[in-house]
Write a structure and sequence with these properties.
single chain, 82 residues, alpha+beta
Length: 82
């Protein structure tokens, strides 16, 4: 499932450069994650890198975008052309 950034985000800017899929960008008020690009780092890392660096733990799974590990891997392969 894709991840989402909650309104607890403090705009610290540490998550954006960690995303290997460039799924994170600055929104109107807080950072946002593009669910079409978020693979929870499947294919790149064992754990979502944005969650690893977030100092306020504001990046839960997005219940609106439920995906299996296989679906996330398929998205990774499509995004990277591998």
């Amino acid at each position: 499932m894709a991840l989402i950034i909650t309104d607890e985000c403090i705009n610290c800017d540490v998550c954006e450069p960690e995303c290997p899929n460039n799924a994170i960008s600055q929104g109107d008020e807080i950072y946002i994650i593009d669910p079409d690009k978020c693979t929870e780092c499947v294919g790149h890392f064992d754990t979502p890198q944005c969650r690893e660096v977030c100092p306020v733990d504001c990046i839960p799974a997005d219940p609106s975008h439920v995906e299996s590990q296989d679906q996330l891997m398929a998205k990774f392969l499509k995004l990277t052309g591998k």
